[in-house]
Structures are given as C-alpha cells and as structure tokens.
Amino acid sequence: MKKSIIVAVLVLLLTACSGISGSLGSGRPIEVTDATGHTALLDGVPERIAVVGKATIMIQDTVFMFEEAQARVIALENRNQSAISFLPLIDDGFEEKEFLEKNIGPEQIAAVRPELVIMKNFMAEQLGEPLELIEIPVIYLDLETPEVFYEDVLTLGQVFDAGKRADEIITYYQDRVIQVENLVAGADSTPGVLILQHSDLDGEIAFKVPPVSWLQTRIVEMSGGDPIWKGVEAGEGWTVINLEQIAAWDPEQIFIIDYSGNADQVVKELQNNEIWASLTAVQNGQLFAFAFDIYSWDQPDTRWILGLQWLATKIHPDLTGEIDILEEVNSFYTFLYRMDEESIARDIIPNLKGDLP
Q1: Which of 68, 133, 304, 354 could form a disulfide with 8 if both were Cys (CB 3.0 to 4.6 A apart)?
Q2: Residue 203 pLDDT
Q3: Is 256 helix (H, G, I), strand (E, B) or coil?
C-alpha cells in the first residue's frame, strides 16, 4: 500500500510539472456513475479519452458503438486481441491515436493527457485507483452479463452525451434476445452443452471451462442449452478440464473456442482423434468450432449477441430457422458500427470462421 501511494505521489508531481493534471472537458460539469457504483466527476463531456488495461478490445468495441468515440478516444493500450485488428475498419483517424504499450502504468497514461480513462472493472485496484489519486477520472465497464452490458451502454451514453444512441443500442440487443428466448421456449428438451476454450502455450495443449457467472454460461442457457460444467469449482478465470472429466460428462454438444482464430483446425484434429471420437457429441456430428470474425463471438464483447443467435441455431436448429446469421452479421456491423454493405463484404465476411453457413 505504501509503495502505491509513493508511486501516485511521484506521478502527481510529474503531471503537475508537465501541466497536464486536471480535466479539460467541454461544457457543464457532469457526474457519471457506472454499473459498478463508481462515480466520476467530469468538467464536461470529455474530449480526450484513453482505453487501457486488460480486456481492451471488449471496452473499445463497446465504446466505438458511439460515433463520437472516433474523435474523442485518443489513446489505446495494445493487448493480445489487438485494437489494430478491427478499429481501422471503422475509424479513419485510427493511425493518429496514441498506442500505449501492454501493462503500462499511470505515468504513461498521464502523459497522453486524458480527460477520462475507461477500463474493465477488475483493473480498479491495480490501475484505476492510482490514476484517481492524481485526479484523472476513471470509468469502469463490467460487460459480463447482458443486464450489466445494458447498464454499461447507458454509462457511455452519459459520457458521450448520447443518451438516445444508448437507448437505440440497448433496444437492438434486447429485441434479439427476446427473439431467441421466444424461439427456444418451445423446445421439448434441453441438451447438455459443453463450451471449451482451447489453448496451446508452448506446445502445452489445454481445454478450459468458463466460470458459471460468465457470459459464456449465460448465452448457453439463453439459447436453450444446459451448461453441464456448472458444478465445477472455478476460480476467477477459465478452469482446466481433463479428458476424463469431459468423457464422464459426455455432452450432447461441444463448442470449441480458440481466441487465436484456429477453432476450425482444432475441431478437425479432434474429429480424427480416437479418444474424442468415442464421445457422443463427436459421433453425432455435434462438435462445433465457435463462430468468429475479427474476434470470437463468445466473450463479453459486443459480438455476444451474434454468439447468442448463432448458438441458438446450433442448439435448437429446428426452432430457429428464421434466424439468418449472415443477415444478422450485416445488420450488426451496419447498425452498431456504421459500416456499409461493400465494407462488410470486403472486411468482415472473408474473416468469418467457425461452423457458419
């Protein structure tokens, strides 16, 4: 604790000497309370916003649903699932932004003179609190459930003074959630579903399940499936599962996630594996590569609504024939990111992966 205070004091001195402390936002002062209950006091609508910390893409993709973000987000921390993969497709001024190194500290953030910093809520103690000690306002987004996602969108509506746009975004999502839930409500059964993240670190292959409270679990339930891993004692993140446990569950359907975009290849390899071939899901052709375009559709990124719709068509194909995934992809990028048909055909459709039409 003493060390963090000393660091904060040093950074405060740095910013004071550089003349960059304090907010420069335009208009009347505003008070924004985010979904975590944290309140930020702003001098006005912020003109210089930095997006930092882990899970940057989830924050950036939510922020950039608001057109104002193109001019007002001036700095981004470049993480593993990189901002460079998507934002240049929707922001002509992307190259003019500051790109901050991975795992930066408050000193580097202060140096870009932000009027507001936005980050994932779990970064509060590590990064948010030191920034607030030097009087740089911080807003936290959670995004981990549909309900809190809507609250986060409302928060951004306050930040950008774009309440009408926030309401439109929420309506877009809720309409599709209601459609899926109504369609699968008529199901005669609830198949056992297993979502597995595949990782290959230095040749060490692992399969992991998400915590019960995470979005991956919720969208399985909303799609009319039974997440059979719900009894696993999980920590704060993905939990490694061995093949014996997978075989004991013997799920009716298995969905493979690979954040590097290689789920298709992983599924092919598993289909040719003697041990995996004995599983009911594999024998019945119910082993799927999770849908993916620029990023995977399973995570608490804006694409979770596509993931929900796609899952429903796989879990209950007999009930969800009215959902055209390719049409939904076009609608998603047109409405949320203002892309035209030509841009979507050129930049998004060729990147589609997973078990898609």
Answers
A1: 133
A2: 77
A3: strand
The long-range contacts involving 171-174, CB below 8 angstroms and separated by at least 24 positions, are 172/305, 172/335, 172/336, 173/146, 173/149, 173/305, 174/150
Domain 190-351 in the same topology as domain 2-175: yes
Residues 6 or more apart whose Cβ sits within 8 Å of residue 38 = 124, 138, 139, 140
3-state secondary structure of 26: strand
- Non-local (6+) Cβ contacts of 224 within 8 A are 184, 185, 187, 190, 312, 315, 316, 319
Query: Phi/psi at 225 (nearest 5 deg)?
Result: -110, 165
Q: How does residue 66 score in pLDDT terms, banded at 50, 70 and 90?
A: very high
The residue extents of the domains of the chain are 2-175, 190-351
* CATH class for the region spanning 2-175: alpha beta
The two three-digit tokens of residue 187, written as one number: 């199901």
On whether the CB atoms of residues 249 and 194 are closer than 8 A, the answer is: yes
Which of 347, 345, 352, 300 has its CA nearest to residue 325?
352
pLDDT tens for each residue of 94-147: 999 999 988 889 999 999 999 999 999 999 999 999 999 999 999 999 999 999
Give the strand pairing for 226-227 and 239-240. Answer: unpaired
Contact residues for 356 (Cβ-Cβ < 8 A; gap 6+): 291, 310, 325, 326
Q: CA 21 to CA 41: how far, in whole Å?
A: 14
Alpha carbon 172 to chain centroid, angstroms? 17
Distance CA 101, CA 44 (A): 28
Q: ∠ CA(63), CA(69), CA(71), 5° rounding?
A: 165
Whether domain 190-351 has CATH 3.40.50.1980: the reply is yes
Task: Please tell me whether the overall predicted TM-score, pTM, comes out greater than 0.85 for this model.
Answer: yes
E strands within 229-279? 239-240, 253-257
